[in-house]
Amino acid sequence: MNQSKPVTIGIMGGSAAGKSTLAKKLADRLSVFSPIVLNQDHYFRDFSEYSPKEREKVITANHPDVVLWDQLIDHLQRLSDGQSIQTPVAGTRMAQRQETVEIIEPSNLVILEGHLIFWSQEIRDLLQIKLYLEVDPHERVLRRMLRDVSGRGGDLKWQIDWYRRDVIPNYPTYTEPCKKYADLIVPFDRENEVATEMVIAGLLQQLTAGS
Predict the structure, then answer these.
(1) Residue ranges covered by each domain of the chain
(2) Helices and strands per DSSP (H, E), number in the chain
(3) How confident is the model at residue 9 (pLDDT cuts 50, 70, 90)?
(4) Between vectors from CA 144 to CA 139 and to CA 149, what angle results, nearest 5°?
(5) Cβ atoms within 10 A of the Cβ of 31, count?
(6) Nearest to 196 by CA among 40, 11, 33
(7) How far is CA 208 from CA 1, 30, 144, 190, in A?
(8) Which whole-number Å values give the CA distances from 38 to 186, 206, 210, in the listed order?
(9) What would you report as the CA-atom Rg of the chain, rounded to the nearest whole angstrom?
């Protein structure tokens, strides 16, 4: 394939809605197109301008202020224009952890996933397809606790305190309202194979159009 423009799809939903799971499945099933998966979390700012004590009070993962939007928009625009990008971006938590520098070459399929991505109109304008994963809040909480405590060895009390401080007030303000921008709202209390196959079929049709 040698399209003039890549197909760009965004996957949004609350914390632990299954965004990464769906993005991986799409990438695996459409691997022949060498898809790129961009994770919004890799553009989280590091809040290094604050002292450690101040940082504990202001740091967030669920307010739009956490994302370096200019850099994320620039990268998505470059990939849409058939240009390569380099990660990690300076000023992000990923760069702070000294992650390996990677050059990401352009692709015919770009998948962007994150729980705040539709908040930015510039991002929405660059996405041809926008999916929102709808999951019962209780299910998302259970998934999150299993992931962050059992899967990642986190502290349960810390996770609960964080959820109360950062997720509960921000999710209904900055994430849930953005489902109005979605082209398709997908129930994802379980891995929705029917919807997944429909999305794959739609992507495949766009990717092979004119070939």
Answers:
(1) 7-205
(2) 9, 7
(3) very high
(4) 135
(5) 10
(6) 11
(7) 8, 11, 37, 29
(8) 20, 20, 26
(9) 17
Do 131 and 192 meet the contact criterion of CB atoms below 8 Å apart? Answer: no
Q: Is 48 helix (H, G, I), strand (E, B) or coil?
A: coil
Write the CB contacts of 205 (distance below 8 Å, at least 6 apart in sequence): none
Q: What homologous superfamily does CATH list for 7-205?
A: P-loop containing nucleotide triphosphate hydrolases (3.40.50.300)
Fill in the amino acid letter for 16: A
188 close to 17: Cβ distance less than 8 angstroms: yes
Structure tokens at 163: 């959820």
Nearest-10 crossing angle of helices 19-29, 193-208: 50
Q: What letter does residue 152 receive in the DSSP assignment?
A: T
pLDDT digits (tens, 9 = 90+) for 155-204: 899 889 989 999 999 999 999 999 999 999 999 999 899 999 999 999 99
> How confident is the model over 123-152, as pLDDT tens digits?
999 999 999 999 999 999 999 888 888 877
Query: Would you say 92 and 17 are in contact if contact means Cβ atoms under 8 Å apart?
Result: no
d(CA 1, CA 53): 52
Contact 117, 174 (CB under 8 A): no
